[in-house]
Amino acid sequence: MARSAPGRRRPTIADVAAAAGVSRTTVSHALNGIGKVDPRTRARVREVAAELGYRPNLRAQRLRHGRAQTLALASSMPFSVAGGPSRLGFYMEVAAAAAERALTRGYALVLVPPVESGPGVESVDIDGAIVVEPEEDDPVVRLLRERGLPYATLGRQVGGDDSAAVDLHGGAVAELLLQHLREQGARRPALITGEGTRHSYVDARAAYLRVAAEQGFEPVSVAAPEGGGEQAGYDACALLLREHPEVDAVCALVDAFAVGAARAAADAGRPVPDGLLLATRYDGLRAKTHRPPLTSVDLSLGEAAGSAVDLLLNRLEGRDAPVAAPPLPRLVARASSVRG
Predict the structure, then answer these.
(1) Which of 167, 213, 288, 327 is most buried, most CB within 10 Å of its CB?
(2) pTM for this model (two decimals)
């Protein structure tokens, strides 16, 4: 691949247009993924641009389009459940995939951490945002609306616009986990979710009640405060086992809660998996490194995050292009839910 030598003039959009035999407008549309450009012409323009070592002038683009060329990734979910002490959980996996997809479409991604107070999305110069698993009346969504900024959500929002959301299939995830626990011999599985109205919690509770009614067991469900992290999961599971000793399995939707639940089970003399089957939702670092490893679900977060970026940018650019749906959730069975 040819590249500009040190000291040589940087190739311009006019150079690319001349080499490709097209207009500068066509080059601009081809490189920015806008307008109606024949796919073969678009590929040729990009090939020529790469050969010449052409790089767009981002400052000029921002001035011309009146955009920051920057997106935000934001969530109201506290790090105690979204990331944990390592900061390498659910939220950061989404961030890495979203940043990669944004760059391929000419945008930078700013990570707006979930903080209790202080500056948030209102303090950054952005063109739009992806909101991760919003609440029904989510403060991040509210701020974006006040600023008149477009947004897409990773995970549906209760009462929100489903056309602006990438579905994470909360009900299907809960059914997968409960079906697995029942297949492993559980007769009285219990459910632990976070408090609040995130769609994943709402859908899981509805799915749990439906499965309990269909299969004829008494439902036992507890909602724990998200900010409590692993300790909240410990407290919820300890309470379950004290008040409902017949419970033989726990589906702890948040992985931090599942880690706490495993500790509570051990302290109650019912270690996982021989004394209590345990499963969680997110197949992340906590699930993989816990001892025993936790049964979980592959949510295809990379594909889902990329789809959320595409959805947001299509809305921002006024395009009506279809967005690829991420694969359906897949169970990852591990030792925490298999006795013997």
Answers:
(1) 167
(2) 0.79
